[in-house]
Write a structure and sequence with these properties.
Layout (H helix, E strand, L loop, with lengths): L7 H15 L6 H8 L13 H27 L3 H13 L4 H12 L3 H23 L5 H17 L12 H12 L1
Helix pairs in contact: 1-2, 1-3, 1-5, 3-4, 3-5, 3-6, 4-6, 5-6, 6-7, 7-8
């Protein structure tokens, strides 16, 4: 029976899961190898060290959460509100991307290089919001304010623990989007 061999992508995926579950300190080669059911020796065929893995993880997160999301939003088209909703759903409602995104945000509070990467990602996301909201509203200040509020709503609603009385959260979120757009 041949030896089990993991791919570079499997190491990255395991690292992203660990990051989402426990932050960057949880991304440990030995723990990842154990979770993959392999020895850590195979890791070094793909990465020089843990830092190289962390960089590859950030590359994957950035590509999936910007390039792939923006490409899909553009490809599937629709009116501006539909496209904004799709971008938010793909990024901030995804069982895969949301936990990684939140972990990267937390990590970026302590690591300037990660903060710079997050700034680049958020600027691309804001660019999409500005472009689409700009088709609905002419005033550049109004567009910027609405884009900021929409982005804050998409991220912040995952941190808010408040109840909404007799109103279901999804209805309140839908109404908030109505007010923005």
């Amino acid at each position: 029976m041949g030896a089990l061999r993991t791919t570079r992508e499997q190491w990255i995926e395991a690292g992203l899961r660990a990051l989402a579950d426990g932050g960057p300190d949880a991304v440990r080669i030995e723990a990842l190898a154990k979770g993959l059911g392999v020895t850590k020796g195979g890791f070094y065929g793909f990465f020089a060290d843990r830092e190289a893995l962390l960089e590859a993880m950030l590359d994957t997160w950035e590509r999936e959460s910007t390039d792939e999301v923006l490409d899909r939003v553009e490809r599937e088209g629709g009116d501006p509100r539909t496209m904004i909703t799709r971008a938010g759903r793909l990024t901030f409602s995804s069982d895969r991307l949301l936990p990684i995104d939140l972990a990267v945000r937390d990590w970026g509070r302590r690591d300037p290089a990660v903060a710079e990467r997050l700034r680049r990602v958020d600027n691309r996301r804001m660019g999409l919001l500005r472009e689409l909201i700009g088709t609905l509203h002419a005033d550049p200040t109004d567009v910027e304010a609405r884009a900021l509020l929409a982005f804050c709503l998409a991220i912040g609603e995952h941190f808010l623990a408040a109840d909404h009385g007799a109103h279901p959260r999804r209805d309140v979120l839908r109404r908030a989007a109505d007010l923005l757009f």
